[in-house]
Specification:
By secondary structure, this protein is an all-alpha fold. The protein has one domain. About 85% of the residues lie in helices and about 0% in strands. The chain has 14 helices and no strands. Helix 9 crosses helix 12. The two termini are about 20 Å apart. The mean pLDDT is about 85.
């Protein structure tokens, strides 16, 4: 299946997986008001914090190890990795049950909602593993089907719990939790039927997954910092303005549509990138760069189009209480544009197993994020968070570009546009 066709399928799947939730926000803006949306924002911050310690990079390692191991060894790797993640979740759950009331006070989110978030994080592990496994099998239509059914079920539950029963933010959280439970049960059955879950646990693979997982915890925790610091600091510096946080959160959901396209391309391109790197001929270098440049141009067009359309979308569909957030969207969307360029470079570090570089860069990224968010939010309020996001992702893209070219020594002809876009390339 060619790149364009696979990308179109994964884009459709990512739209169902993420974009439909943004579209749903059109309607929920009339049922979940800004102050409740602020609680949803803080709930998402908590889930983003927990996820790296539960997942431990397992979906990423499945993509890498599937290409290296035979079928029998891959089954052992899968069961061992799942056992490690499950054990990590149990430890986290015990810690949460011991300190949950304190965490609830710090987050200003009810304890029961945070408990739902803990369970959702573990259910999400099975969803991500299902999607990763369909990718390594090169089954984009199956990926699309799983994503579509999952989101249609969640939308149905949102209609029942939020719109019909009026459960507000709690109904929105419960719809995600119940959908996650359904995916968990399906994933458990599917992986057991295919022989991927069994009692043959290998300490060798547990150790390998743990080493990889450590670097992924740093990276995913960095992603958490990049995604959540603005929302946390808005709440921390303005604790009585849940409404303002809710308006900002709504804007970030629309800007996140750009990240849907980034995720879809990454799903499509990652296996192809590893094949190019395994046979890094001059011709493959040019092909690799051509794909990157074409996607960057496509992403720029989509980002610009979204920014131009957002004021009209808000006027037509969104509760006017959220309209003060219109100016935030463009800054956040172009931040995700630079995140897309950033994501194009991460595969190099994964393939060459630059785990220490990933850890160091993750720490650097987190410090840049916290520093910029604190300065701009403190001095410019909520608008400062939008400024900080664009500046942060721009800085990180440039820094990662320099880092990859130095540590991987690929000697790619980035500026030889004539060769990259020449005939026959």
């Amino acid at each position: 299946m060619n790149l364009a066709k696979s990308f179109s399928i994964y884009t459709a799947a990512s739209f169902f997986n993420k974009g439909m939730m943004a579209i749903l926000a059109f309607f929920l803006s009339h049922y979940i008001l800004p102050d409740e949306n602020g609680i949803l924002s803080l709930y998402s911050v908590f889930v983003l914090f927990v996820l790296p310690f539960v997942i431990l990079g397992m979906p990423s390692s499945l993509v890498i190890e599937h290409a290296k191991l035979d079928e029998k060894e891959f089954r052992s790797y899968f069961s061992s990795s799942l056992a490690l993640s499950s054990f990590s979740f149990l430890i986290l759950l015990l810690l949460f049950l011991s300190a949950g009331q304190f965490i609830s006070g710090v987050m200003t989110v009810p304890f029961r909602l945070l408990l739902f978030g803990m369970l959702y994080a573990y259910f999400n592990l099975f969803q991500e593993n299902l999607l990763a496994y369909t990718r390594v099998l090169n089954k984009p239509y199956r990926f699309l089907l799983i994503s579509a059914v999952k989101d249609l079920l969640e939308i149905a539950l949102v209609i029942i719990l939020v719109i019909q029963l009026g459960r507000g933010a709690e109904g929105r959280i419960l719809s995600g939790l119940l959908t996650g439970a359904a995916v968990f049960l399906f994933g458990l059955f599917y992986f057991m039927r295919t022989g991927l879950i069994h009692s043959g646990i290998s300490m060798k693979y547990i150790k390998e997954e743990f080493r990889f997982g450590i670097s992924q915890v740093f990276f995913q925790f960095n992603v958490f910092i990049l995604s959540a610091t603005d929302k946390y600091l808005i709440n921390y510096l303005n604790p009585d303005d849940k409404s303002g946080l809710g308006i900002y959160f709504m804007s970030s959901q629309f800007a996140f549509i750009i990240n849907v396209l980034v995720s879809a391309f990454f799903f499509t391109y990652q296996p192809m990138l590893y094949k190019f790197l395994a046979n890094l001929t001059p011709e493959n270098k040019l092909k690799m760069l051509k794909i990157k440049y074409l996607f960057a141009a496509f992403l720029l067009v989509c980002t610009t189009t979204l920014c131009l359309a957002i004021p009209y979308i808000y006027q037509l569909f969104i509760n006017e209480q959220y309209h003060p957030g219109i100016p935030y969207v463009a800054w956040l969307a172009f931040g995700y544009f630079f995140w897309g360029l950033y994501a194009l470079l991460l595969g190099f570090l994964y393939y060459y197993k630059k785990n220490k570089v990933v850890i160091i860069f993750s720490i650097f990224s987190s410090l840049i994020c916290i520093g910029l968010d604190y300065y701009f939010i403190r001095n410019y309020g909520i608008m400062g968070a939008a400024y900080a996001n664009l500046m942060m992702y721009g800085i990180l893209f440039i820094t990662l570009f320099i880092t990859v070219n130095r540590v991987c020594r690929l000697q790619l002809p980035w500026l030889d546009l004539r060769a990259i876009f020449g005939k026959g390339k």
